[in-house]
Amino acid sequence: MRGQALAIVLAGLAQAAQAGPVEVPPEDFTGPEYVDSAGCHFWRAQLAGQTLWAEVIGIDGQPVCDAPPPVAEVDPNLSPSDALPALAPTRRGVSPTFPQDGRYAQVGAFTSTRKADEIVVALQQAGFSVLRQDFPRGSSRLRVLFVGPLGDPDQAQAGLRDLRGLGFRDAFLRVQGPS
Hints:
Blueprint: H1 2-19, E1 33-35, E2 41-47, E3 50-55, E4 86-87, E5 102-110, H2 113-125, E6 130-137, E7 140-147, H3 153-165, E8 172-176
């Protein structure tokens, strides 16, 4: 009986840890709870000598993602858009691989770092988590900005309306994983 209970707990822990945080905590992070850049809560767990980050699940069975994204320490030599998490470049017409499944909004593409920086600051002040994807273009680059994950379909549509209300009329949703 005791072995079965342990197996159930370990199976649940392994399942909760599969999603994982958007980004893993820094190596020197020692706290028992971590909030990732999407505002989702994770608990530290040790399993077979390995640290796992188990997603906190609410009473509704959904991940608890209600915290404001933490303010990261940023290298003062980086511009706001340079300091964002970067997505790997993809071929034209291929969606990027986001850090976790979900709904993301593509906000815009910019060749001017200054303009991208202004947009990043506005989006972060509005409460959005922002990601970037860079594409080399000769001696410059094209920087594409995304926000998300935006939650379930209704939350994603509300986020898209908010973005459009902020002036990003061409913003559109991209979905990664099960919809």
